[in-house]
Design a protein that fits this description.
The protein has 9 helices and 14 strands. It has 319 residues and is α/β, with parallel strands linked by helices. The protein has one domain (14-317): Ribokinase (UDP-N-acetylmuramoyl-L-alanine:D-glutamate ligase), CATH 3.40.1190. A hairpin with a 7-residue loop joins strand 2 and strand 3. Helix 3 packs parallel to helix 4 and helix 8 crosses helix 9. The model is unreliable at 1-10 (pLDDT under 50).
């Protein structure tokens, strides 16, 4: 059964976020000046992080997520305090959970438990909730699961194909088989990281190899027209309407890069919902990723910093 929360503030634009793999996260934070740690409990994973960033950036987010088991019940209470709309799908299997600690800025996983598999009827309900939310929004973001066998790949193909037929704008932030399944259905924008590309050694690959892979992905589906490749501190490479662009944002000292790619995805979706010009869209997306990395907190870009960094970012054609 689906339910929803009212957002804390209204917005003229809205973004639906398909998040099939929420994670209950317990973090032990060890401050430099104390022996006893701070303990934080939150709900992470791509879907919640993208939805959080969409809200920070000024649009209404509608998160579609399955919740089941003891971990799902705990996550439901935590998510009820989030400022975005929540449309949950009740499932029998527990959602994923992990316990981590952070010392001297470094995170390490202490223990984790993967999510259970969905039943076919649960997948059907999840698909229906995602499709309905997308029809209620201006743009739909499709995120995936870090466990490749967690979600039937056919669901990504079917969802993207049906959204294409319905004329909805889609942004997919996926990797591997889940990405390929979504591309088979067709998406408008694909956001990926350089180390998620199908290259023998992504970190050692030259730009031409990355461009070639981006162009291959751009032709993989009927509606896959644009590909954004983030590269950590290096300029993002963007293939938009068949043209190559390098997007550069001022380099800042990172504190925590987790969720920066999700902040970039959220900014792309918000910009598309607002129908921003392409240059401004790409500058704000790069700025959101950079803003997120300068403080603790996954996918929580500072909107004032995003505004200023976007003004300093550049979008240049790649020769």
């Amino acid at each position: 059964m689906a339910n929803s929360n009212d957002p804390s503030s209204s917005s003229s634009t809205s973004v639906a976020v398909f998040g099939p793999a929420p994670v209950l996260v317990c973090t032990f934070e060890h401050p430099h000046d104390r022996a006893d740690p701070d303990v934080a409990l939150n709900v992470g994973g791509q879907g919640p992080w993208v939805a959080r960033a969409v809200t920070v950036l000024g649009s209404t987010a509608i998160l579609v997520a399955p919740l089941g088991g003891e971990t799902g019940r705990a996550a439901s209470h935590l998510l009820s305090d989030e400022p975005y709309q929540l449309r949950t799908v009740d499932v029998r299997a527990a959602i994923a959970c992990y316990v981590e600690e952070r010392r001297d800025g470094e995170r390490s996983c202490i223990r984790d438990a993967r999510p259970g598999r969905f039943g076919q009827r649960e997948l059907d309900r999840l698909y229906t909730a995602a499709l309905t939310a997308a029809l209620d929004a201006d743009v739909c973001v499709i995120t995936g699961s870090p466990w490749d066998d967690h979600v039937d790949h056919a669901l990504f193909t079917r969802l993207c194909a049906d959204l294409s037929r319905l004329g909805r704008t889609t942004v997919a932030d996926l990797a591997g088989n889940q990405r390929d399944a979504a591309l088979a259905g067709g998406v408008d924008w694909l956001k990926t990281a350089h180390d998620e590309l199908d290259l023998d050694d992504p970190d050692a690959a030259d730009e031409e190899a990355i461009w070639a892979e981006a162009e291959r992905l751009a032709k993989a589906g009927d509606r896959t027209r644009n590909v954004v490749v983030s590269r950590s501190s290096e300029p993002a490479l963007v293939l938009a309407d068949g043209e190559r662009h390098r997007v550069t944002v001022p380099s800042l000292t990172p504190v925590d890069t987790r969720g920066s790619g999700d902040a970039m995805t959220a900014a792309l979706a918000v910009g598309l919902a607002r129908k921003l010009p392409q240059d401004e869209l790409l500058r704000r997306a790069a700025a959101a990723g950079a803003s997120n990395a300068v403080h603790k907190g996954s996918a929580t870009p500072d909107v004032d910093l995003v505004d200023r960094l976007a003004g300093l970012a550049t979008v240049e054609p790649d020769a």
